[in-house]
Specification:
By secondary structure, the chain is of the alpha+beta class. Helix content is 53%, strand content 19%. Strands 2-1-5-4-3 form a five-stranded antiparallel beta sheet, with helices on both faces. The chain is rod-shaped. It starts with a helix and ends in a 7-residue tail after the last strand.
């Protein structure tokens, strides 16, 4: 019995010692866990089931500048430390956490006490004790400001790169466009140089022929005048009903034709003084058309005039302009088939007065077109229309001497359009 009593006593003493140790061990474990939580790098907090803050670790001060004691007494924790634009979203998140939801890495911004703004991300989950009773929820907030700023810097860098790339593409497009324009300009300049070379060749040809033509015109003109005067005496001596009277008319016609050729040669090469005057170009066109109306009617060709109203006055040598018009319209009459129509239009465009003579003749083939302004070049073979090929050459020389130009558009079977253009005067025709 005494031994049994001693054993029981020893057991009771041991049990009593173990019971005394449990609170000490529990207290020691709590201190350990609290130390671990306090020194966790992330901002950790424990909220009750009603959402009220129960505990927060020291990391909150590193991220926000507010210590744990201030947070425990802070109304509506942690909303005062959150950027105003994110508070509504975080309020809804905390309310959901109190109802038992969980989530991970939801980003928001805090405004530290020392000023500025920092990016953080929160994860949360509900907490339960060993018996399964709800203890509220915990949150873990980690600092992602460096990552967000790096992402922002990357986005800005990408945006800058896109901007630079867009600028490079625009520059490339502009360079390509300028290159195309330069190519077009080079082509235009090349064509102009070619035209100038052709004109230089033509001028050289004119200069070479000038002395001969001027000499011929001078030498022929004097005896021709004597022949014509003598012929007039013979002509007046024969009665109108003489059997050879029609031969005299034919001879007279040919003498006039020779005189016109000599006049054209002289007009083409002799120096001239161009005295400009102001005149109504539309009226001048009408006058020339009236002079050629008989010739057009004889060939069954209809002359039509289309003039714009209130055209600017032309300030040009009117005699030379009439000569150009006469040559162009006469050529159109000679090229037109019976029943054809010639339209002479007068208008203004880009500070220029333009007269166009459009016929319905056979047109000019591309091989012949470059040569039509050459002196002594003609497509008229024999007949009363035959000439020495000086009309267009004379017309171009007169136009250029007055600061104008003559253009031509023609296709075989589609007729031709000759246009002469001069700078506008300052006044307006009435």
């Amino acid at each position: 019995m005494p031994g049994r009593t001693f054993a029981a006593t020893a057991t009771n003493i041991e049990a009593a010692g173990e019971a005394a140790e449990r609170p000490a061990l529990a207290s020691d474990a709590e201190h350990r866990f609290r130390a671990i939580a306090d020194y966790t790098y992330d901002w950790e907090s424990w909220h009750g089931a009603d959402g009220r803050l129960i505990w927060v670790n020291r990391a909150v001060e590193r991220l926000t500048g507010y210590d744990a004691a201030e947070c425990l007494t802070m109304p509506d924790y942690p909303l005062p430390m959150i950027v105003a634009e994110d508070r509504r979203r975080m309020t809804d998140l905390l309310a959901g956490a109190a109802r038992g939801s969980s989530g991970n890495d939801v980003e928001f911004r805090v405004q530290p006490r020392q000023g500025g703004m920092a990016w953080v991300a929160v994860s949360w989950q509900p907490m339960f004790d060993a018996a399964g009773q709800a203890l509220g929820f915990r949150t873990s907030v980690r600092d992602i400001d460096a990552r967000k700023r790096a992402e922002q810097a990357l986005r800005e860098s990408e945006e800058r790169n896109r901007t630079l790339l867009d600028a490079a593409r625009r520059m490339e497009e502009e360079i390509r466009r300028h290159a195309e324009q330069l190519e077009q300009l080079v082509a235009q300049r090349t064509a102009q140089v070619k035209t100038l070379e052709q004109r230089r060749t033509q001028v050289e040809k004119l200069a070479a022929l000038g002395q001969l033509a001027a000499g011929v015109a001078h030498e022929v003109n004097n005896p021709l005048a004597g022949i014509r005067n003598a012929f007039e005496l013979i002509k007046t001596g024969l009665p109108q009903d003489h059997a050879y009277r029609h031969y005299l008319e034919l001879i007279d016609t040919e003498i006039v034709r020779i005189a016109n050729i000599v006049h054209q040669m002289h007009q083409l090469y002799r120096p001239r003084s161009h005295v400009p005057s102001e005149f109504n170009l539309g009226e001048t066109v009408s006058q020339v058309c009236w002079l050629l109306q008989a010739s057009a009617s004889k060939r069954g060709v209809r002359l039509e005039i289309a003039a714009e109203p209130k055209l600017p006055l032309a300030r040009l040598p009117e005699g030379e302009v009439k000569q150009i018009l006469y040559n162009l319209i006469q050529n159109a009459i000679q090229a037109s088939p019976p029943g054809g129509r010639i339209c002479v239009s007068v208008g203004a465009a880009k500070d220029e007065l333009i007269v166009s003579v459009k016929d319905e003749g056979p047109g000019i083939d591309p091989e012949t077109l470059p040569r039509i302004f050459d002196p002594f070049f003609t497509t008229k073979q024999g007949g009363s229309d035959g000439g020495m090929g000086l009309g267009l050459s004379v017309s171009r020389s007169l136009a250029e001497a007055s600061g104008g130009r003559i253009d031509v558009e023609s296709r075989p079977g589609c007729g031709s359009t000759f246009s002469m253009a001069f700078s506008c005067g300052r006044e307006t025709s009435v």
